[in-house]
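Need tokens for this chain, all 176 residues.
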Amino acid sequence: MAATTGWGNAPGVRVRPATVDDALVVADVYMRSWLAGYQGLVDPDELEAVASERAEHDWQRSLTDPASRLALGLIDGTPAGIAKVGPDSTEEVPGHWLDLLYVAPEFWGTGVASALLRWAVDQARATGATCLWLRVVEAQGRARRFYEREGWAYDAEVPPSQNAFFPLLCMRSDLI
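Here are the structure tokens for all 176 residues:
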């Protein structure tokens, strides 16, 4: 899908496909959001150790993965969030997944997360998907409330999983 302003309904919000040239920006938005999301939930020393590992992620490879789509959310032209849709990264559950949705903390509450979520749903629908899944950290109440407000429901049929720190809950959105 071409770059568009169609996924944003908040003033100044725009979502566009990310390119390889955006790799450093995507990495920066991801790390700032990830660190802010775990602040206060995880011991700072432990968080820093995992953050160092995550900082090494190969975003250029993620951006060229033919099985996935990654978008950059902008507010008045400033990178504010990212989203990625693709197959289940754990390879346990076939189907379409919102593999990540991260918004830099200074842009929380601006509407960019909702715009990125709409983009993800549109990407899944364009491939013929009838359902989109995601995993959310059980301890991150803010993220869980966001998805609930957006109409997502918990899916108890998907096997439980865990990230480096917490149990993950599976949520789904039926696209029909």
